[in-house]
Structures are given as structure tokens and as C-alpha cells.
């Protein structure tokens, strides 16, 4: 699972790099040469890493070493992304930012729920999504409509207000 530090770096790079000069990087060397518990000096970073992590410069020395290493790994990942991958990521970040706070919270909850699944179930869901992506647009729309109509009972109850009161009549057992 990707850490919040990783995601914050990618978000910052995605949003900040839209106006900055394009980053063409060499792989990060510091994380590979120093153990994760060892602090990394700002001056030991490559120019590309410094460019990507510029928003952390003032507080870099106060960050815990594991956080520094996570940020360096994220910077390395961003630097290795193709321009098309970066554009796709920026578009997804923008789409997420345009969601309402409730929609963002639901998305975070779904992400957490997915991450808590066993790896084989996660893979099954990924495979099913790939199959879904290959369907024609009309078939996708049919499936979305069918899914929306088939809400689980607990979701329908939440949408329609409180559950009906329980009956006070005694329960009769059926004759044998």
C-alpha cells in the first residue's frame, strides 16, 4: 500500500510540475546507498530530487529519516513516469479535487476497503475491471444501470430513512 507521504509527493509533483520545467531524471541514488533509518542531507540529493522535493526544502532536515526515504522513492517513481503517465495522473488528481468532500470520503473508504482485501481478491477485482474496460460502451451502460437498480438492502435502508419498527405480533411457527 502506498503511504500518504508517497501520495502527497506525487500530488505535489503533479500539480506543481504543470507549470515547472519538465523533469527528466536519473534514478534516485540516496535511498539505495543509505539504510532507511539514516537521515539524508538536502545537499546529498540529486538536482532532480531537489527540484521535485522543493516544497519540502525548509523542513527536510526535521523530517524523520523513514519519511525522507519514502519521499525520495516517490520522487524517483515520478521521475521515471513517462509524460503520458504524468498527464494521466494529473487528470486523475484534478478529477479527485473536483469531487465533493462526501464523494472524496467515500472514495477513500473504498480504497481502504480494497486495500484490506486479501491479495487474491484484489487481483480478481482488477481482472474483472480489465474485462469491464474492454466492453463496448452500450454494454457498460447496461451494467451500470443494472448495478444501480440492485442496491443492497442496507444501502437502500440508509437512503430511505430509518428502518420500519418491529412488529409486536407474536411469531407463529408454520404447521408441519
**Main pleated-sheet profile:** none
Helix content bin = 55-70%
Mean pLDDT: 77
Which regions have little confidence, pLDDT < 50, spanning 5+ residues? 1-5, 17-31, 157-171
Strand fraction: under 5%
- H/E topology pattern: HHHHHHHHH
Provide the gyration radius in Å. Answer: 24 Å
Spatial separation of the terminal alpha carbons:
55 Å
Q: Give the structural class.
A: mainly alpha
Shape: elongated
Tally of helical runs: 9
Number of strands: 0
Brief rundown of the structure:
The protein is mainly α and 176 residues long. 59% of the residues lie in helices and 0% in strands.
Describe the fold and architecture.
The chain is an all-alpha fold and 176 residues long. The longest helix is centred in the middle third of the chain and has 16 residues. It is 59% helix and 0% strand.
List the helices and strands and how they pair.
Layout: H1 4-16, H2 30-33, H3 47-52, H4 65-80, H5 83-97, H6 101-115, H7 119-133, H8 137-149, H9 153-159
List descriptors.
176 residues; mainly alpha; 9 helices; elongated; disordered N terminus
